[in-house]
């Protein structure tokens, strides 16, 4: 929101000009004057529709320009043109962002701000925020957002993933056919994913790592030795770091979220995989890691054809402007040919909020229309929607053209169910789904068991079962990476931004018609024939997707 105040413009980067911090945060007083702040300036995006048109043009199978993905320079120019002709500004690789690291004292003077230290009461994490910002009129019209300023959000979540030791062989034999352990082999069988090694060096998958979640090479070796015996156990991944990131190698440092590495390498046979570790220097604890990693990848000359992330927050945790600016960064990646995939989240329609929530809580960034959100299923005869799989409708982004018919069909079938609890004009998510994991949440005096399979991983040298939609995105991304490999080998462009391709080839996915994602005191959304806001269009049918891609 931008409003006139005298001869200057006051910019409120939260939804309002805050008189106080939102519920759940408390001020500890003025932030130290010498505390370092990494300020990100989001330039005006007046031509974002132009970049969107270019993205859809190269991503829609019926377009004459399908597959003609933009170069780095072209994408940068698109964003430069959208920045109100601020030609002296050096943009990030992803587009229209500037970054400056300055002390709090200078930030206060520059922005006419008063930064305080606010603590998030539930987590104990603290951040520097201000309740108001003032910019001079000569620059206010050129800046959409500055972060961090007045936007308060909870710490990022990698999903409530907990692991338990693998049960005995006797208990394994007692499991029914609809509740089996998931391994690369079971996924290959279920989805028809081949074990044939990829061979294109320009192919690749980038896997996001945040919040001190590290991928252990020793665990990967053990995982491959047990679950991909046909693949060399020495198969490994490359490492890229930003914001002081690292990949500490020890049993104590093992992170459950590194299951993304084990399942991309375990499924996308011989596709080069990079673990991209975001360190603590992004400072924000919320938007910073998301934004920095997309800018980092977009700044590379050879960006990855597939980028998968299993971290998420809630759409309402960020201001509408910040949601939009970050989403536009994914649009820039897609325009250059990257398939961006995100897990949809683990909170059903409540978004991990208390069950007494008044309205459904969409997750983010999975509501961004320029990426592919992946929900979760379990079982194999047939698959069923996992009841923790987040899905619904955005409160920020409208329904994109590529899914308009699919969403309209679902809403017609839904009728008045859940009326008033969600935005029927919003972008529906997820777009697709894949097998997830069993998630157990321990609460006082009871154990809640959420439907899903027990996905086998190795963490800290132990064989464990992982829980959460974190499994689904790397599984689906692996199938796409193998198709990309064949496309490259045949001299064709990679799939890039997937959604126009997927929605125009819905029959190439396994439609899921059973299950729901309860929350907020309701049964949530039911899975239905066709697209639904719990499993999207369905799970991968590799042979059908391959054929749809022209192979």
Automatic annotation (TrEMBL):
One of its GO terms (molecular function) is tripeptidyl-peptidase activity. PROSITE patterns: SEDOLISIN. GO terms for biological process: proteolysis. Gene3D superfamilies: Peptidase S8/S53 domain. Keywords: Calcium, Hydrolase, Metal-binding, Protease, Serine protease, Zymogen. Ca(2+) binds at residues 511-512, 530, 532. It is found in: Secreted, Extracellular space. Binds 1 Ca(2+) ion per subunit. It comes from the Eukaryota. Its main location: secreted. Residues 181-551 form the Peptidase S53 domain. GO terms for cellular component: extracellular region. Its cofactor is Ca(2+). Signal peptide: none annotated. PANTHER family: PROTEASE S8 TRIPEPTIDYL PEPTIDASE I CLN2, TRIPEPTIDYL-PEPTIDASE 1. This is Family S53 protease. It comes from Mycena sanguinolenta.
